[in-house]
Amino acid sequence: MGVLIAHRLLQSVVVVLGVTLISFIALHAGGDPTYLFVSERATAEEIALVRQALGFDRPLPVQYLSFVADLARGDFGTSLSYRQPAIDIVLGAFPATIELAVFAFVIAIALAIPLGVVAALNRGTAVDGSITILGLLGQSIPNFWMGIMMILFFGLHLRWFPISGHVPFLLPLLNGDLATAFGNLPRTIYFLVMPGVAVATYSLARNTRLVRSSMLEVLGQDYVRTARAKGLAEHVVVVHHALRNAWLPVVTMIGLEFGFLLGGVVVTETVFSYPGIGRLLFNAINQRDIPLVQAGVILLAANFILLNTVVDLVYARLDPRVTLARRR
Amino acid sequence: MKLRYLVALAAGLAIVGVAAVMKMRPTGPRAASTIVVGLSADIATFEPANISSRDNMNIAHHIFASLFTLGADGTHVPNLARELAISDDGLAYTYTLREGLTCHDGEALTAEDVAYTFTRIANPANKFTGNAPGFVFSSIGFRRAEALDPGRVRITIARKNPIAFGLLTEISIHCKDSYEKMTLDQATTAPVGSGPYRLVSWTRGSEIVLEKTAASAAAYDRIVWRIIPEASTRAAELMAGNVDIIANVAPDQIAAINQSGVATVQSITSTRRMFVGFNQAEQFGQTPGGRAIRDPKVRRALQYAVDVPTICRQLLQVECQRATGLVNPVNANRALSPYPFEPATAERLLDEAGWPRVGGKMRFALTLQAGRGRYLNDVNVVQAIGQYLRDAGVDVTVELLEWASVFQPLLRTRTAGPLFFMGTGGGLWSPIYDMNDLARVESGTNYTNWSDARWFSRWDALTDAATPEDMRRLVDEMLQVFYDDGPWLHLYFQPDFYGVSSRVDWQARPDERVYAYDARPKG
Fold this sequence. Notes:
The complex is a heterodimer. Chain A is 77% helix and 0% strand. Chain A is mostly helical. Chain A folds into 2 domains: 31-75, no CATH class; 86-218 and 247-327, Orthogonal Bundle (MetI-like fold). The mean pLDDT of chain A is 84. Chain B is of the alpha+beta class. In chain B, the strands form 4 sheets. Chain B has a 10-stranded mixed beta sheet with strand order 8-9-10-1-11-16-12-15-13-14, sandwiched between helices. Chain B starts with a helix and ends with a strand. The mean pLDDT of chain B is 90. Chains A and B meet through helix 2, helix 4, helix 6, helix 8 and helix 12 of A and helix 1, helix 4, helix 7, helix 8 and helix 15 of B.
């Protein structure tokens, strides 16, 4: 396991450098970012002064190498918009996104497994058809539309849930303020319901279909027939023999999906005015706040690498045939 | 058996969940002493010298007061200062402060604090990039600020400037003792101001909470600014009673808000000038279209080709009068009438200008560029303008570009176009402020590269005008030139829509300033 982690650390350095280089080039491809930081009436001389103050007067390779050198010292730079350390701003927004991602993830997994299993066990019936149609709908409905419909119906019409906003749980928890964190928790969950469901819908639908197809494949295997022939109860056959083996592709998918949820909830965060990292990075990209984008990208890339490593470890645990050494 | 337990457990959890929801569900408006304002964009900083956006300035203006301020009608209203005396040569502005002013840190606010504010902003070592150093100070040619005594401060500028008094209202006064102790980083999040409210908390991307100071006469004890980027969410929060004022209401939501019974939409014509620029840069002169728009006759002909009132009515949901130039109507040349929509006149003038339809088809081709999503319903407005011009025989290709990364750099390098759609902020307090975008041929805001000597040669005389009458005469002459041969296809002043709860008495302003301290509870 130690070798795997060392290997992944090495990989992460390459990946982080790669993503920072790509985002750096992309952000500069649109032209000189200086114009976003000066008044629309600024003269050429004033623009030149601001360009110098922001460091954009240096050649691009020099700017990038300077960034990498600072990064090696743990300095992610200062946000051009907020004039504060970029990593502090990113880390400030990250807990809210983790809360949303975990909430959506739990919904997507907790419902997808029973729905997928039920659909597979009732293959070809009305139950299976209904779940499949719901799955298709869930994958087809854009989450921003879903979010707005939920706001209008559950937020405005029925007044069941708050329309927008966020009550922090993780941030006070990480700051050691346990009383505030746990005092907030019920309202944190309450505020998470609508954005969480909007984010989870697509994942839930996809995971349900994945579990169903995986279960269908496993249920046709000889060892399942043998288990039934031995006279085992049906729930034992399904849970202990079929589901455990159907689990492997699902684990791979959900591991990556959590990483996707952390970085890919920008639309939902915008619709629900949720102050997470997706919206922060979206605004930073629009503002061409390069240090802030770089800090966010590095954090998300590191998360993806971490999650991939966890998935590998879980995979090996679930399937004894797979050893970490062989996979390397 | 186990299954029955599981079902019972699930049912129990569902009941607890529903009960919890019912207990926590929103129950209506908050404390009557709090007003909640929904904004579309977050702020970036509380460092006054680094603020460059109107949204950011709107909130900062509650924390930091200015010497004088601008009323909604453009009048010059005393604020921290009660009096302003301008020297005969127009280079020294002496402000007399009101007595008994205090900073949020409890210290007395004196002329020394005001002088410190100006000096701090101008200090190049601070590398400030906001509107104050980047536009105001360079426009007025700021030289120095000095406290004459505790109650009087003198600002010295390099050259006489008829709009300096108005530009100085943009400067937010902060307090020397606190700012001398703070680092620049600390100043971005911990403002110590001189205005009617102080900062309580700022949750980035979520909300800003302000609390009234003891000296403030504002009606609400607290102001909560909520950042709600999505227009439909802002409207829903207003209609649910969770927010009292929202900015930037989308036209398609006006009817729903007005029918909600809990809020109404205020529509106001703003000071933002919307126009299509005719860019006369050399690079466009290589094409027939680029050559054509260098001819004032062609530009004048195209004024007749676009039906602006219909665009306002159909796409912006308001009735509007077409602009006659770059100055807000209150200061416009009264002798000028808006160009009417007369397609036949446009066609005739284009023929006379030497650009007939070739074989009954198009006369010349032009690209019309615009940023996407910056202005009210901009995509549809630009498409409509493109079609009107095509009807007149101009083969227009509309290019909708991402605002920040693509269109704005083109504007700033004065290479957008040759036709481009945009809006620029104006004011009611002086026609010269509106005209100042085109103060020099090389001005960064002369996006069209216009160089008509009849306009630019009058600027020195305008600056040195001895009397208001002389100044008015010069303004009218210049506006006549701009109307006849100017570089803009005149459109409209952008309407702004604000949603206002029926609990609140508040009036929207035309200058995009949202001041919640002007609001009062109804009844």
